[in-house]
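Hey, sorry to bother you again with one of my protein questions. I've been puzzling over a protein and I'd love to understand its fold better. Take your time with it, there's no hurry, and the full record follows here:
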Amino acid sequence: CDSDCTLAQCGDQTVNGAAGETCDSGTETATCDDDCTAVACGDEVVNESAGEVCDHGGPSPTCDLDCTFAACNDGVINSAAGESCEDGNLAEGDGCSSKCKAHKVVFATSQGFDGNLGGLVGADMKCQVAAQAAGLPGTYRAWLSDDTGSPVSRFTKSTIPYARRDGVLIANNWADLIDGTLAAPINLSELKTPPGADANVCGGTSQLTFTNTIVSGTMFTDFTDCQNWTSNAPGFTGGGQWNKADGLWTQFVCQQSCAWKKPIYCFMQ
């Protein structure tokens, strides 16, 4: 019974706390649900006057936490809808796919370099500069090995996929990356162009990269490492073929000169 001695009824514009009402505007408003409780996204009552279009009590495959329909690139990461990232665009190969799936970006540089990379730190910096110039987010490291380190000791072991700049899958995770075979060759640069290189050939191909790294991510001990990647003096190092997806992508048994200019692989960490 309301305070005016009429039967309590939601919508009678009389707030009856004893009946569980916290508001009663006579109808749904921006501050009051049609069940006479205060508006709150997540209360499982859809209040269109408050801007809600859905309310499932929390994120669901079709409804975001803010009570709007789930949609990739709506600014809300909805894991229930299978989203793992949101970057505000539908571009591929930038760390977040057009379907809001996170991945690690991989590319071979658009510029060729000789063996004097400034060590592994200098090579990492070249990857970082290339990535930033292409507008890519994140931290990058070079797929190179020498006496001071290798990918297996320097890289973050990703549990999410690695993808090329066009969004094509390279590997499902770190374990897949080092199992000897890629899903596709790393044949695009940070600019989505073929990698840069000089015309020098080894084993009949010029589509080469410096790596000194075998498929397991450890050092290729059969060759030198251009004095820990600080020298372009004549000498030989190991590398890969950027047009290959089998073990040759990184472990090509052919002597490449430290004086040549070849691209390097760069991986988002």
Observations:
- The chain has a mean pLDDT of 93.
